[in-house]
Amino acid sequence: MKIQTVGSICSGIEAASVAWKGLDWDFCWFSEIADFPSRLLAEKYPTITNVGDMNDIPQKITSDEIESPDLICGGTPCQAFSLAGSQNGLNDDRGNLTLKFVDIIEANDAKRLSKGKARTIVFWENVEGVLTDKTNAFGCLLSSLAGLQEVLTVGKWPNSGIIHGPKRNIAWRILDAKFFGLPQQRRRLYVMAGGKDFFPENVLLEDNMSALATYPHSDLVFNKDGHSFELFREYTDCLYSSYGTKWNGNAAAYNGSLFVVQDGRIRRLTPLECERLMGFPDNYTLITNSEVKKTNRYQGVGNSWAVPVVGWIGKRLKEYTGDKLALSLEKIDFTTNTIDLGNGYYYADFGKGLIPLPGGKVINCTVTPEECTFGKIEDVISTDAEEELYISPVGCYGMVRRKEERNLHMNKRLEEVLRQVSSQMSMEEIEKRSRVQKRGRFSTPPDNTSQKETSLVSEIPEVCSRKDEQQLTFNFG
Length: 477
Known about the structure:
Elements: E1 5-9, H1 15-19, E2 26-31, H2 35-44, E3 49-50, H3 57-62, E4 71-74, H4 93-114, E5 121-127, H5 137-146, E6 160-164, E7 169-176, E8 187-194, H6 201-204, E9 206-207, E10 221-224, E11 227-230, H7 252-255, E12 259-262, E13 265-268, H8 271-278, H9 294-302, H10 307-319, H11 329-332, E14 338-342, E15 345-351, E16 354-356, E17 362-364, H12 377-380, H13 393-405, H14 412-422, H15 427-434, H16 451-459, H17 466-473
Parallel strand pairs: 1-2, 1-4, 2-3, 4-5
Antiparallel strand pairs: 5-8, 6-7, 6-15, 7-8, 9-17, 10-11, 11-12, 12-13, 14-15, 16-17
């Protein structure tokens, strides 16, 4: 199997092009409609055509307007399957693009088969929430790709598994970027498929040869280029597309993993640091031929792929020589989660652990690869953060207030730092800034302050409304 050409769908800022740069694969077209990523693609890859709307790709392939590549990669919009996107699945227009992705593969295969070529190699990435989508979007995707007559429905889609269907073989696995050299916990679902002579489980799954690594400890307090730094964990939580632009009360806001203490002040990560957390070259999103807002850079990076993980998959695909695992139904039929689809076709649930097979072989289906690489978050940190990235005393106390009002757990050291910073402003000034608008349902009105809020205010002289907090610390132009 030889891959020479690639088509990219929902290209974003093109993590695949960065990850597969050394594999001698030629990208023949991109597909992106958002303004900032499109401008970035035009500057970074001026010789590669951006075909625009993915809905038009089947017709363009059929009419030979664009090439029918050996490999098509894409990550259809994850918002339809994520917590942040309300998890509406196929009831969301963005979720329906997952099925349009299948239409593109079918059109590409029809064109390739008519020319005597093999079926397309398919690579698809998404959030792990697609596995629990209430509309069974993942089942629709797999069943369509496999060529099943009916949509496969299971009680719960596993973190890893395979389907050998009438039309295509499919494998999938969740992998965590923090084991691939990025100090970021970013678990994503990776799916690979191809014709009946391609066995993608040999790319995504591994022979287990030794005990799996655990994440190492490192210093959270250090000096760099004349500045003192403190972090709250060895790796960050998953970067999301709205990081730095709005408050959404996620776990990272309370465990502190997406904050940095620099010279005694607390701030958010810079766009440069976010690029490094995803494995991009420094200032990759700082295009030069048009205006770039921080918001653009945060969104572009947060919506993209973890470059080293995609690079690892690409390298294994490049090295693929055949079906070394030979996972026949007879060999793996040791669990009730294996379904015989008839005529030698089957579905296998490999769960999220180490799977023992007859003969002593063990298959690694975990989020951790056999050979791990660990990056230090210290290496991600930059010393040139702009002033507007620092959280004001009002914003610091707003986080503490929310924690108290909602009885949430917060990293103890993070709370100490927030309280220390917020104490720099007088109570009068805090009240002046914090009562811009009515607070949320968890807050007590100012003329009826509860004993809990009174004691908190006496400890730390700052209160912050949501509007004030966003205006002061989360909006960038």
